[in-house]
Batch of 2 targets.
Target 1
Amino acid sequence: MSKAKWWTIAAHEYAVHAKRKGFLIATFGTPLLLVAIFAAIFAFIAFGDQSNSLGVVDQAGITQKLPATVTITDTLRKDVAVIRFDSEDLAKTALSKQEIDGYVVIPSDYLQSGALRGVANEGNLSSDARGRFTDYMQKALISNQPSLNDQRALEPIDQVYNRKPNSDVETSEGQGVLLFFAPYMFGIFFFIAVFSSSAYLMTALVEEKESRVMEILATSLRPFELMVGKIVGLGLVGLTQISIWVGTALLAFTIARANIEGMANLTLPTNVLLIGVVMFVPAYLMVAGALGAIGASVSAVQEGQQFSGIISILMISPVWFINMIIENPNGPLALFLSLFPFTAPIVMMQRVALVSVPAWQIGLSVLLLIGMALLMIWLAARIVRVGMLRYGKRLTLTEIRRALSLGGQHGE
Amino acid sequence: MAMLNVVDVKKSFAGTQAVRGVSFNVEPGELFGVLGPNGAGKTTTIRMILDILRPDSGSIEVLGGPMDESKKNRIGYLPEERGLYRNLKVIDCMVYLATLKGIERNEARKRASAYLERVELGHVAQKKVSELSKGMQQKVQFGTTILHEPDIVIIDEPFEALDPVNTRMVKDLLFDIRREGRAVLMCTHQMHLIEEMCDRIVMFNRGEIVLNGTLRDVRRRFAPNAVWVEGNGSFDNLPGIESVQTENGQVQLNLQAGTSPQSVFQALASRGDTTIDRFEVAIPSLDDIFVRVVNGERGQ
């Protein structure tokens, strides 16, 4: 095979597709959009309806074991100080000076009635203030239980450490959340990059048939060279895209870990990333082969999209079973989906994040994926040879069967 | 060495014989015409020459041997079903297709620019192909066929969508190729262009070659042994004339066997009451021959 020609095709496909507006928007827009969404959520939580300081006037005498000022924390929101005032007049003064956003009076019959009186300039205590006072009251009540350690009563849960069923490695709560979301995120990136590159391949083939450029290409190089060139070029497009996405995610994670206290101890699940890296190339070749064969068989882009939809549904189908996979990551369903080539990349990443997957299962999964990739490329090369000059009419099943039995022979 | 040598080539599709034992050859410095009605087997034969299809039997030699990958760069092909990358710039499209024929990128750009200037399309080099008129696209398409300076140019309906001025430009380019000792195999239904340009022709009908030879030979084979005369006076009662037909002021004198056109001319010239404006040995046009052959009349 002339290296120059497939490389010329690859370079051309890369240059054309990497400059497309759609590609640039998807590649750079997706991380920006994700950052914007997360920033908006964070801003909503952090800067939304939120109290500064609050006051409490204790007429029931149940807060005496608490310090005069208690800091109430909440995930993502800033800390709020609840200050105890000796009289309601003092609390009113603080409120009028805007030192506090509001206060509650704990009446003497509180233990019987459970009723508090809230005072705020707006008339109602904000939802955030209500949440903080609930926390405060629990602390106050627990602090009065004589058998309990005061400090523990104030901070009942300092940290939760989690373990995988077959592992002695402990992971923090935050790390657990990361282990759940990271494979999800990588899976989505993986799917989009693999599928969009393969879809470009299919579209390019159909367009070349529709525009009749195909016959000129057919007299310039072998169909196999054409396929190799397109697969390599568009694979590099996908690789560029996923590299930018994963790179942005890693950068964002690094920045967040350096700046957000709660994330300092989090570590990225590198095994998930490693599985993704190992599976990317065969998964791309498999889908590219399948969509290439579709592209060579059909006569219009829309027709190709209908058939390619089946492949995309197959690949994304693990999302439907995500609860079952999480509940039983080593169960038969999870095992099957992590071995079946079209679902393997996403499910294996999820499983590896959750449990210790036996090495033989990972090995078998990768082998099956490579096998399916080779089969699809073989299939595509034969169908392209026959279908490349078929204009305006898609190949019939009989013709496809004949194409496969022709081997390296020409035919029509 | 023949540029192309096709010997007894056959090809069937699903039991239907598309090409039935076709043989012809194309020599260096020759403009070779291929005629025939739609579905006669021309395109299938060309695809076999180009190794897109493989013949069931027979042999095809290209540039002195069997077709192989190395020879693809030495052939330029303008297919009947053709097109360009509509979203690419004209110059980029030409350069890309030339690089697939083994031309280095910078050289391809240089040649493409020169070609566009020659065919008066220099101003559209940076435009998208889709922005061009059909005729302009056709000239760009023709450029992609010859940019890599192929030894053999195979073109199917090269003058489609071209006005007379642009037809002249493309004809000149083809004559240049012939002058340089390269070969052109041209398929077209425009008979007058075949008559003007081609040295030899083959005519396909129902998968077979029904005519093969120089234009002169083919026409003679179909010549009716008659002369055409225009003028004033009587053309009756001439010696050696079998019959006289008159149509649109032109008189056709059908000669008896053994009568020469020269003797008829002398007899007419000796008549004092007759003036001759035109005297021509009757030779049928390629158009007439085509229709007669396709309608089942064989001149052989």
Target 2
Amino acid sequence: MSDPVQKPDTPYNFAYLDEQTKRMIRRAILKAVAIPGYQVPFASREMPMPYGWGTGGVQVTAAVIGPDDVLKVIDQGADDTTNAVSIRAFFAKTARVATTTRTEAATIIQTRHRVPEMPLTESQILVYQVPIPEPLRFLEPRETETRVMHALQEYGLMHVKLYEDIARHGHIATTYAYPVKVEGRYVMDPSPIPKFDNPKLTNSPALQLFGAGREKRIYALPPFTKVESLDFEDHPFEVQRFCEPCGLCGATGVYLDEVILDDKGGRMFVCSDSDYCEGRREEGHRGHLAGALAGAAEAGE
Amino acid sequence: MSAPLNETQAPLLSAENVTRFYGTRLGCREVSFQLYPGEVLAVVGESGSGKTTLLNCLAARLSLSSGAVRYLMRDGVMRDLASLGEAERRFLMRTDWGFVHQNPSDGLRMNVSAGANVGERLMAVGQRHYGQIRGSALSWMERVEVPADRVDDSPRAFSGGMRQRLQIARNLVTAPRLVFMDEPTGGLDVSVQARLLDLIRALVAELDMAALIVTHDLAVARLLSHRIMVMKEGEVVEEGLTDRVLDDPREPYTQLLVSSILQA
């Protein structure tokens, strides 16, 4: 695959996968974009990382990335966790692409279970890592049956799950992997993002690609696709609300992580999107715990 | 039960030479009959006589080797079930038909609550109002005599009789015109059986449903059905009004069946 004359500076083909594999994945992506929300099977490869660490997302990223792309990888919103750092390093090594932690500077964002707080643009691609692509899996274990249900749009069962939630908890207690209907046709699992992020899926200017490596499925939301979260007329879809702003940057209306501070019940809420939080602090925003915990939080990072 | 037969009406279901082979082995052969709206037909016979095969063929759960089953759709057109598309067939199954399995766990979703079990068909046909779905579930549970305070319990926590009643409620919630029942009282003790039979009889009369009941228990057939078909080795050997067949069996095999009931 490499130029026989010039000695390659990396033993890997560009972005690790061989060209035929990338073509195969691109064909699956094109099909997925053509049928929004439909799960396209693809010949998922073994990747040099365990299943569950984002093998699907990595393959999708490898298929769409070019030498001029700038890659950002987030894991639960953070750029600095093992998974995010490793995947960034993987592409820095195998594709020699520039990486960044800044949302607005990235052209490809691979994400594990969050959508960045900052609105995305038409020049960006969001790649989701998906553990279980089939939204009906835990309701109907037979793959043959779920395929027929998708084909015939038999989605009553999805509401059975929501009914169960309300019957047991008094409200829809599904907080992540909240099922959505794409363009009034396919019911799709938006990967385990918090339902807080569901409203960001609809009409997004960015292309959204979903890769499930173990389950060998790719699906997609083309830009400006209508995505509705399923609900009942008398129990409409709602996102999580937080009782206090981010402790570090004072942001409201963003998704927050709870951080346990001590064993006496002390806790704080901080932005799950670490880049967004840092950006706000650079702009001079300060949360009520920023001064007291600045040292501790940096030590923790 | 007296027969409410109205021969001027069009039949609801019509079977024409229904034949099913499993490879070279016979399931059922050349069964023909017509079922009218509101009529209850029992299919009796010993184990292995082809009753359940016939039922599955009629309910479009098995393909036929030859013959045809026609059904009067809600728009008044008689259609061959084999000509229905998969989508139409499944829609028919969850709206206009019910299927009560012998083993309730085959017909129920054991991992969701009783209320969700009853409400599933409503949600499948597009109801999206939680309060109304739950209201229907509660009223149906009351009708089949399952205590309303069990609505949020899993069917796993139910007794066999309650499960079977729940399965019936789940099937009847969309007001089907035809219900298939495969040994609905099998595996239940006698007193529970009696109550269930009472319930089925009342519901069938009240809702004016047609029912096709497969059973090996002649007492069930006598209690529930207007007409009876006796099967042996895959073929219908005798057919007629329930009282006539059971009180005055003509075929030696039917005589044997009737005489083998223990006289209390």
